Structures are given as C-alpha cells and as structure tokens.
C-alpha cells in the first residue's frame, strides 16, 4: 500500500526529530512492503518568516488531501511576543480546528528502564505508570469567544469555556471505547463544583457511561486530579477531560513518566485521518545541537501506523525497538541517568533502526 504523509517539521528541534522519524518509517515500510510518500509543508514560525502567516492555505489543503500529518513542533522565542497578532501556535489550533481533530490521545507510559528518570519515588512508581489522557481538542476555552473589554473603565479581557452536549458525548465515547480496550477504568476530570460547563460535561459523561456497564467511571476535580497524578499516578487508566485541563494534565503525566521527550500523541477526527506529534514543544534552547530526543516523534509515527493506517504489527515493531534501545542503556540528555550511555538525536534514531533490523 502507498500512504501520503504531510510533514510539518516546524521550528526548533522539530526538523531534527522529524528527520529521524521519517527514516524509521521508511525502514518499516521497506520491511513490510509499504510505500510512504512525504510532502514537506510550512507551518508555525518558519511559515511566518517565509510567508507572513503561521498556517498557509496550501499547507492546509495538502494536509486535507493526505492520509495523515506528521508534525514536529512549532514556536520559539523569536515569535513569542504575546501581544503579536500572528503567532506560531495559531498554526496548531488552525490545523486542529480546520481538520476537525477533536480527539487527542496522549498515552503516558513509564518504561521500566526509565524508572530513574521519573521524579517520583520508587515506592510510588513501583507498579509502573500507564495512563491514557483523552483530551478534547477543538472546543472549550481554546476555541470559545474571547476579547478585550473594560470593567468600569479598567482594561479587561475574557475567554469563554463553552461545551455543547454533542462535543462532550463524542469525546466521552472515545474515552469509554479506549477504556474497554485497556483496564476498563475511566476518570472524567472537570471542575463541576464551580463551572456550569463542567456540570454539563459530567452529566453527559454519565449518560455515555450507561452504554459501558463494564467500565468503572469516577469523577475528579481538576485540582484533585493534578494532585493525584503525583501522589499515585498508578491509580489511573483512562482520563477523559476538556481541552484546557487535558493540556495541563498531559504535561504533568509526561513528567511523572520521566520526560516530556518521550510522549507521543494522536489527534483524530471522524475518520481514520489523524495528525501525529510529540507533546513536547520546539525546545529552542537545544535546537540545532543534535541532542534532542526524537523518541516521542518516532512513537507518534507508530501511533500513525496504528490509528490511521491500521498497521498494528508495524506500530509494535517500532515500539518494541524503542523499548529495546532503552533497555540497552542508551539515553538522550533529557532522560540521562547515572551509568547510562549518552547519545544524540541521530545516534538514537540509528539505534532504533538497528533494533528494527534485528527484530525482524
Ligand atoms: C499542546 C501545546 C499546545 C496546546 C500549544 C502549543 C498551543 O501545549 O499541544 O499541548 O496548548 O494545545
Ligand atoms: Mg500542552
């Protein structure tokens, strides 16, 4: 089979981590007899520099026509003026919104060899961590009405958190479907003691739950959930939550598993099309030095094979290879610990490829 992949390498370390991922995908394609065709597109800060807009129409058009999008990272200090009208992050929100990618899957797994990289005590993580954050991605405060106003003559600003029942229902269903394939436990995170939108969220999640009697549902307020994530992350299986709470909780979940440099993500819509990206940002401080960790992007490539192309065996080959490299003691700087072997971006990419070659 032939698959068309739109590639948005983006800014900072984006191009470096994407390059390793493309190499890994090509190798897997070669081994299993698939062809991946790539179209490299501009979005983010580099698009602002070249074309004056973070998300050029052409980029969006080609993404729409492709089978999946692989994205590195966008943004950086050069474009970071919060008062600027044009910002790289608008590319991400524009892609998510325009492509209808309302479901963001962010699996946070503590790989056994990375236990030392977790900031949590051994006693807390002894049983490992395996959480899937299901984040709503095209609603809530990210997309609600916002603006500048005045309060009795004092300059003010507002953003709106709004959800309709349908938006909650479709993401809740994915949460429950995911739980059915995993540990059959789901935690819905909201702030229903304060927010009207959270009360609607909770009511709809409970409705959806009646269709999944085997799944154990619990509700947590976001403040408590943030605390539980460091107190005992092993209690979680699937977490389903809103756009903003999911943004925050997924960063926290990534850190307790050792490094934000390890976590992949999939942004999905109604059909098999999806956008795949590491959850880390563009890390401008280490860009161009060849030391960035490409594993989150490589693992995002595996999620692409699984979710968009239904190539489960191929996805697992990549995941096993990544685990194998970690088991062999190779580490990039972000996950380095005593006694391990420090390697750079292309070296760890090459090690993953060697594992794939050997594993087949
Ligand atoms: C993420 C990022 C983005 C978000 C930013 C860069 C707009 O933090 O994907 O988690 O807030 O969604
Ligand atoms: Mg985030």
TrEMBL record:
Could you say which cofactors this protein requires? Mn(2+); Mg(2+)
Q: Which GO terms describe its cellular component?
A: cytosol
Site Important for catalysis — annotated at: 142, 191
Q: Which reaction does it catalyse?
A: (2R,3S)-3-isopropylmalate + NAD(+) = 4-methyl-2-oxopentanoate + CO2 + NADH
Task: Kindly give the Pfam families that the UniProt entry links to this protein.
Answer: Iso_dh
Any binding details for the cofactor? Answer: Binds 1 Mg(2+) or Mn(2+) ion per subunit.
Q: Which GO terms describe its biological process?
A: L-leucine biosynthetic process
Where is the protein localized?
A: Cytoplasm
Q: Which GO terms describe its molecular function?
A: 3-isopropylmalate dehydrogenase activity; magnesium ion binding; NAD binding
Coarsely, its chief localization is cytoplasm
Q: Indicate which residues the UniProt annotation says bind NAD(+).
A: 76-89, 281-293
Record flagged with keyword Cytoplasm: yes
Instruction: Give start and end of each Isopropylmalate dehydrogenase-like domain.
Output: 4-352
| Residue numbers binding substrate | 96, 106, 135, 223
Q: Which Enzyme Commission numbers does its entry carry?
A: 1.1.1.85
Q: Locate the residues binding Mg(2+).
A: 223, 247, 251
| Keyword list, A-Z | Amino-acid biosynthesis, Branched-chain amino acid biosynthesis, Cytoplasm, Leucine biosynthesis, Magnesium, Manganese, Metal-binding, NAD, Oxidoreductase
Q: What class of enzyme is it?
A: oxidoreductase
- Which sequence ranges are marked TM in the entry? none
On assembly, the entry states: Homodimer.
Q: Which family does it belong to?
A: Belongs to the isocitrate and isopropylmalate dehydrogenases family. LeuB type 1 subfamily.
**Function of the molecule:** Catalyzes the oxidation of 3-carboxy-2-hydroxy-4-methylpentanoate (3-isopropylmalate) to 3-carboxy-4-methyl-2-oxopentanoate. The product decarboxylates to 4-methyl-2 oxopentanoate.
NCBIfam families for this protein: leuB (TIGR00169)
Can you say what this protein is called? 3-isopropylmalate dehydrogenase
The root-end lineage is: Bacteria, Bacillati, Bacillota, Clostridia, Eubacteriales
Gene (UniProt): leuB
